[in-house]
Design goal:
This is LanC-like protein 2. Helix 4 packs parallel to helix 6 and helix 11 packs antiparallel against helix 12. The protein is mainly α. The chain starts with 7 loop residues before the first helix and ends in a 14-residue tail after the last helix. A 3-stranded antiparallel sheet has the order 1-2-3, with no helix packed on it. The longest helix is centred in the N-terminal third of the chain and has 22 residues. It is built from 17 helices and 3 strands.
């Protein structure tokens, strides 16, 4: 593939060599202009120039929307009779979201059967199954459940007994398959899938294995699958003793690394030689999943290990509120769920609800401001590193603030973050118009169109929206 020069400052000295242009459009291709430039009469370089480029920074578009005020929010949210009422989306805006989802579902069809070899939730057929499973619940339409069942059965037939996590590995198809078969009355098959999932635990709890601890490929990715079953089947589907073994392995791994490196923080984790901090590969994802399992944690584990590591994480933030991708990173660049503030906000919101420490809520709000300013990503609309995933930042804040108000910890229901989520959804209705790079898997749940559809449908019930395969 020819290199793409995305920075206009690099392009200006080359313009005199320009000899041909063409526009790429249609399907999920990039609707930008590509210039073929001949350097020194012997080498062609193809340069992408985005249409209507107004600089936010090199990774995000300028946010064209005015921020929240009460009058402006009425475009999306019904007036509140009382400041303690939970805000509701206007019917007209919900209808706009439904129409956009229906339109995008039609565009998704060609991608569902394009490559059946990948069965992961991240970029494969189980991701599509998870989308249709969610649609079956939110729309009360059994045809979506039937579609999810066909997809999940195809995934289960192709498992490779390799990765053990919910997002990337076998645990995702096994857990989702168990839930879908249970709902369809196939209880024997559901039980078999649960047992197959539990059988993966030997590698997870073995500290001598080379398994990492992070969410995409590691122990907490398996832990999430166990918690998912207990929430979606029955509370004791997975026994406490197995969940405790996995938690113990995650904590033991983190304590051992912190001790061997003489860290002041009680838990430390590494993945492929880097000390990642974000939701996909780092401390954020690990601590967040552990806090999802808080009912299985002891008080000492919460106070002596998890909370001090949370406080360490707070100290690593850039002055503007964003989180570095890894320890030692001096460049404040990434505002993605996988790396940066959009993933961290989920942890800080949950930590605030668990510990009641205002510092965590303040950090979450700063993350929200970062995402509002820099979250309309040039990478596109996906949930891992795109606009839809970043929009879940505002839904996490919206839910936490409203739950806190219900407990008497806040003065009024949150509208600001719901307004911001609606603005990002409005951006998502322009799917493929603001995107400077086509994802490797442009239809998939985490990188592409399926994730955008997931968010736009989820937003229709804001207090019940959950980031797929990460939140519960």
């Amino acid at each position: 593939m020819f290199p793409a020069l995305q920075n206009l400052r690099l392009l200006f000295p080359l313009l005199r060599y320009l000899d041909k242009t063409k526009t790429v459009s249609g399907g999920l291709s990039n609707p930008n202009k590509f210039y073929r430039i001949k350097l020194n009469n012997h080498r062609n370089i193809f340069c992408c120039i985005a249409r209507n480029r107004k600089m936010g920074d090199e990774r995000s578009y300028h946010n064209p929307y005015d921020d929240y005020d009460p009058e402006r929010a009425l475009e999306f949210v019904n007036p509140q009779e009382s400041p303690h009422d939970i805000p509701k989306l206007k019917t007209g805006f919900k209808e706009k979201l439904i129409a956009a989802v229906d339109n995008l579902l039609g565009k998704l069809e060609p991608g569902i059967t394009a490559d059946g070899r990948d069965v992961s939730i991240y970029t494969g057929t189980t991701g599509f199954a998870l989308l249709f499973f969610m649609l079956s619940k939110k729309r009360q339409d059994s045809s979506f459940l039937d579609r999810a069942a066909r997809l999940i059965d195809g995934s289960l037939a192709k498992l490779r007994n390799r990765d053990v996590t919910f997002i990337i590995g076998d645990a995702g198809p096994l857990a989702l398959g168990a839930v879908i078969h249970h709902l369809r009355g196939n209880h024997s098959m559901s039980s078999q899938l649960v047992e197959r999932l539990k059988a993966l635990s030997s590698e997870v709890v073995d500290l001598n294995s080379d398994l990492p601890d992070e969410a995409l490929y590691g122990r907490v990715g398996y832990l999430y699958a166990l918690l998912y079953l207990n929430q979606n089947l029955a509370p004791n589907t997975i026994e406490d003793s197995l969940i405790r073994q996995v938690i113990a392995a995650v904590l033991a791994s983190g304590k051992a690394l912190a001790k061997s490196e003489r860290r002041k923080v009680p838990l430390m984790y590494v993945w492929h030689g880097s000390y990642y901090l974000g939701a996909a590969h780092g401390i954020v994802g690990i601590l967040y999943t552990l806090l999802l399992a808080k009912d299985h944690l002891t008080d000492s584990e919460l106070t002596e290990y998890i909370r001090p590591t949370l406080d360490f994480l707070l100290s690593t933030s850039y002055p503007g509120g964003n989180l570095p991708s890894s320890m030692g990173s001096g460049r404040d660049r990434l505002v993605h769920w996988c790396h940066g503030a959009p993933g961290a906000v989920h942890l800080y919101c949950l930590a605030y609800e668990v510990f009641g420490d205002q510092r965590y809520l303040d950090a979450a709000k700063k993350c929200g401001d970062v995402v509002w300013q820099r979250g309309l990503l040039r990478k596109g609309y996906g949930i891992c590193h795109g606009v839809a995933g970043n929009a879940y930042t505002f839904l996490a804040l919206h839910q936490t603030l409203n739950r806190s108000q219900a407990k008497g910890l806040g003065e009024a229901k949150d509208v600001l973050n719901l307004y911001r989520a609606c603005r990002f959804a409005e951006w998502c209705t322009t799917f493929n118009q603001h995107q400077e790079r086509t994802p490797d898997r442009p239809y998939s749940l985490f990188e592409g169109l399926a994730g955008t559809i997931y968010f736009m449908n989820d937003l229709q019930d804001p207090m019940e929206a959950r980031f797929p395969a990460f939140a519960l």
